[in-house]
Structures are given as C-alpha cells and as structure tokens.
Amino acid sequence: MTENPFLSPSDLPYQLPPFERIKAEHYLPAFEAGMEEQLKAVAAIVADPEEPTFANTVVALERSGLGTLKRVGLAFYNKYSSDTDDELNAIESEVSPKLAAHADKILLDAELFARIDALWRRRAELGLDEQDERLLERYHTEFVRGGAALDEAGKERLSQINTELAELSSKFNHQILTDINDAAVHVTDREELEGLSEDQISAAASAAADRGLDGWLITQSNFSLHPLLADLEHRGLRERIYRATIGRGAGNAETLLRMMRLRAEKARLLGFEHFAAYIAADQTAGDADVIAERLAGLAEASVRNARSEAAELQAIIDAEGGDFTLAAWDWSFYAKQVRQAKYGFDAEALKPYLELDRVLVDGVFYAAEKEFGLTFTPRPDLQGYHPEARVWEVFDDGAPLGLFVGDFFTRDSKKGGAWMNPLVVQSDLTGDKPVVVNNLNIVKPSEGQPALITVDNVTTLFHEFGHALHGLLSACRYPKTSMTSTPRDFVEYPSQVNEMWERWPEVVHHYARHHETGEPAPAELLAQWEASGRFGEGFASTEYLGAALLDQAWHRLTPEEVPDGGDDPYAVVEAFERKALEDAGIYMPEIAPRYRSGYFAHISIGYAAGYYSYIWSEILDADTVEWFKERGGLTRENGDHFREHLLSKGGSIDPMESYRRFRGRDAEIDPLLERRGLK
Fold first, then answer.
1. Same domain, 259 and 231
2. Residue 485 forms beta bridges with which residues?
3. 62, 128, 348, 557: which could join 133 in a potential S-S bond, CB 3.0 to 4.6 Å?
4. Where residue 142 sits, what CATH number does that domain have?
5. Is residue 20 annotated as a catalytic residue, yes or no?
6. Is residue 34 part of a domain?
C-alpha cells in the first residue's frame, strides 16, 4: 500500500495520473482505502457537536470524496473504458456494486441528511452566493432522490436494487464489447470488397492479421448502421455486415429485462410513476410527458422526410435495373449515389484532404484559438494510459490552463463510440486545473499509411472537443458542479455548438489540405459537401428518434408491465422493440434505431431514460449557432461572451439561467426545425 500511487496526489504536471507506475493490482486496494477514508470523513461530519453550517456540513461533505477515491475512480474508469482486459473487467465487476453500496451508506445516512435538510430549509438565512446555494441544492436533491426520506425498509430495498443494478450494468457493458468484437465479419474473397478504397482494404487486412486471420476483417462500429455500407458494392456482403451488426445483443436480453424491472421498482419506491418520470424530474425538461410529446411531434415529420428520401433511393435502384426493394443495408450505398447525383459530392474524394492530425491541429485547435485564445503544445514527455493516448498542454492567452489527452483510434480493448471524461476535475476549492480526455474510434491505418478520416469522424472530433472545452474552460468553485456536471439534457449542448466550426469557411480552408501536397481542398468540392449536408436529415432524425423513443418506452414501464423473458428473452426484447416503434409511429424496416436495445450502452449508464437529451440540447445548440452567425461567427468577442456566461459556469448555477444570461432570452425551437428540415 505504501507504493500505491493513488494514496497521494500525483507529482506530475496538473496532477496527471502517473500511468507509468499504475498497475492493475493498485486499483482495488485504492478503492477500498478511498471508501474507508470518505466514510471516516462523513462520520466526523455527523459527530460534529456544532450546529450544521454550510462549511461544516456541505463543504465538508464535498471535500470528503476528493482524495484517494476520486483519484482512483477517475483513472480506473478512464482506463477501463479505453483499454480494458480480462483483469480490469473483473475489477470493474467487483468494485461497481461496492461503490453503489458505498454511495448508499452516505445517501441513506439519516443524521447526515438531517443536517443537510436543516440547512436547505433555512437557506435564505445563510447568506449564500449562487454557487454555494447551487451546491446545497444539488446535495439536498441528491439525498432525496437517493432515498434519504424513505423508511428503513424502503432504504434497505433501495440499497439492494442499486447494488444489483450496478452488477447488471457491468455485465451489460462487458457483453457489448464482447459482441462488438465477435460480430466482426471475416472476408476471404477480395472481390467482395469492391468499392472500398485501398486505405480501407489495407486497414481490414491489418485487422485480420491482428487476430491471426487470413484475408480481411470488417470490424464492427457501435451503431446499427456500419459506415462501410456506403462504399461496398457487393450487396451480399452489405447484408452480412448489417445483419451481424444488428444481431448483437442476444446475450444482453435477460440482463436488460432485469434492469428495466429494477429501475421501475426503484422509481415507484421513490414516488414516481416510472423511471422516465424519475429521470425527467431532475433534468431541464422537468416532465416525462413533455419529453414524450416533443419526441412524438418530431418523429412524425422525421418519418415523412425519411419516406421521401427512401423513394429517391428506390428510384435509383429501379433506374439501374435493380430487381429488389430498398433494404436497410442498401440505404447508405444509394444515399451516397443521390448525393453524387444531386450535389456532385463524393465523400471519398474529400478524404485525402482530411488527415487526422491536420484536422485536429489546423481545424479543432485552430478554432479554439480564434474563439477563446487557447493554444496547444504537445507534451510527449507525459505518458497517457495507452501508447496511442497523446498529451497536449493547454494555454489560455499564454497562461497554463490544463492538459488535453487525445485517444483517437479504435482497438479491441476500447468500448465503442466517442466520449469525453476528466482525469482531474477543475475546482477553485482544491486549486486543481482540468485534465480532460477525448476518446474516438477511428479505424487505425496500416503501418506507414496516413490516418485519413471520414467526414463523420471530422464531426465527431469537433463534437467531442466541445465537451473538452466545457471542461477546460470551467471556472467553478466546487468539483461537484464544475466542468460538464450539468443535467444530461444540457451537457450535449456545448459540444453540439462546437460542430458549427467544422464547415465554417475560415476553419475548413485551414485544415482541409491534401495529406501529400498540402494543397487546399478544391472550393467546388467543399461547396458540394456543404450543399449535400441537408440531404439525409430524414434518415438521421428517424434513426436517432427511434433510439430515443425506444429508451423512453422501456423506462415508462411499471414493474408489472416489464415483460418476462421466458424461454427466449431475446425474442421478447425484439417483440417489445417492434411494438414500441410501431406505437410511436416511427417503425421503418429500412431504418433501424441508431442503437437497438441489446447494445444500447447509453441505457446501461447515465443516459438511461435520457437519450432524448441530444435532440433536447440541439434546440439550444441551433439557437446558439444563429446567435454566432448574427454577430460575425468565429470571433474572440463572441467566444469570450459564450465562455463567460456559459462554458465557464459548468453546473455551478442553474444551466437554463446561464443560457438566458448568454442568449438574453429563452431558446426558440425554430432554428432546430429549420436545420433538420422539420418545419
């Protein structure tokens, strides 16, 4: 234990975890030590003979979890998500239920809650500023929602539910990663790869070699629609890949049903009709019925647009003499042809101008410098948690601000998707500066080849860096409310705003340069890219809303309404999916939900009953983009205003209040409807 690097603050710049010294055997002892350390601190708060004050109760509670437990938790879950193995999976399975039980020991402590509740009841007399009051409000809400007001029997049952849910969540996510790896499609006939670029074929050959296979391996993405379906000419292979993709999740069916039943029981125990209502009550939306009404309205227009797009695709199939009806595995392939026919745009023609590091440095970093005065210096002397995780030091008009870690390539040990998370949380209370990580899943090029990325990868780079900016520009007093610690249906908003710079003329001309010659991408090609952006909104909206409505459908069930799995839980889950989508008016055989239930990682983590958040946040995003455009776009003045009133605030004040201070009014929905073609 004396050699455990988590038992004291890191001596590296910005307290970056010393990954070169961290071994798997350090994690569990550090978790145990951290939990014991926090419980001792909580016991001291409860035993304090003085009347409760904001300092001796709320601030003391805030400090209680900032030592060993915080350090090991941030480092471990980052490593587990980005570069796991059997040993880390076993640790996560063991520690997650322990952490859930540990949290319940605190949240269900009647004496501790009594002190917090007493402060909350007389908060108007305490002379708190808005950050202090926000912290008190968050703790009081967390304790109430955590069951502090339940009787002893209710507390005991809630604790049992939370522990089992933690175990099930671990099991669910382990299975997702297993399924992603197992569902890779092995190709032995090169002719089936017709339509793929040499870079794509080379990457598939490398993926096969990595697993000791001959030929080529089409590894899976996180979504229901595989990105290579847009390029593959061989319809049979397209179908194989699609069916392998959406066939994942059978091993998660029983786990999913049990999770839904437990969440429904938890919601009822806490006084809510269903879990969706429980979640909505602590979001900016406030009401699950409001969410359902908004999603239903958007779904109707989305399906209408999607059917119109499907007719265009079928027309191309018919014109080519195809004797088949458009299927889900055909959509991307023929959508690409429509874009080429209507707009002349070929995404593959743009790819040589999209080299990963150039897009990152001359695009993503460049926009942040123009908007906020940030600069980024590589720190190869600082080691990440994996050799591919690179570190940059971030400067704010020349002053040290924090660290940014970029981990961009897919690998079998990394979960799917893309995300941002902190390694060190910014806080004025502790004096800590932010260290943030962006993870993506870009297909790694073969040895010696450039990392040429897709236009979707470019969007993801800008999006995830928007989360990173939300963390890096945080200027909050308390860790609990700093950085991206906002409601789920608000947190995606700043990252979505950052996507606007992807195609902003000044930015795209700076990064879209040929990887060999350095020549800028032809203006005509960029204009075609911009013009083609609107086509496909019907598909994109329907695919997304299918997943959002499915998430809501599962979490609007009462305990009695959750179906029994019987002998074939996967068939039960599939039947529920089909009916839920039909009832919502969004079922289209040609368009699967962005995630199907068995590999819908969001509903096993913090986005359960919250996947609607992306479209909800996009209302704020679209309205904000209009604000930037009205005021000249990418200027330091605009960036400073956005930073001062919104990004720097994190969750330290009510997020919608920070939006009103930034925008001068509440958000309007028309810009979103216009953007998605839903008016």
1. no
2. none
3. 128
4. 1.20.1050.40
5. no
6. yes
547-to-16, 570, 578, 653 alpha-carbon distances in Å = 36, 17, 12, 31
Rounded to 10°, the helix 24-47/86-107 angle is 0
Q: What is the DSSP letter of 222?
A: S
pLDDT of residue 396: 98
The pLDDT, as a whole number, for residue 1 is 58
CA distance linking residue 571 with residue 186, whole number of Å? 26
> Which positions ≥6 away from 670 have C-beta within 8 Å?
679
Q: Are residues 517 and 491 in the same domain?
A: yes
**What share of the chain in percent tops pLDDT 70?**
100
pLDDT at 27: 98
* Sheet of strand 399-409: strand arrangement: 374-378, 390-396, 399-409, 435-442, 419-424
* pLDDT given at position 353: 98
Domain identity same for 288 and 328: yes
- Report pLDDT digits (tens) over 279-290: 999 999 999 999
Which 8-state DSSP code applies to residue 360?
I
Among the options 92, 355, 371, 464, which is catalytic?
464
Q: Enter the tokens of residue 522.
A: 């032809």
Look up the domain containing 128 and give its range: 5-107+109-149
Amino acid identity at 222:
N
Residue ending a domain, choose from 248, 279, 302? 248
Closest CA to 18 of 60, 79, 65: 79
Confidence at residue 154, expressed as pLDDT on a 0 to 100 scale:
97
Residue range 496-506, pLDDT digits in tens:
999 999 999 99
Low-confidence ranges of the chain (pLDDT < 70): 1-2
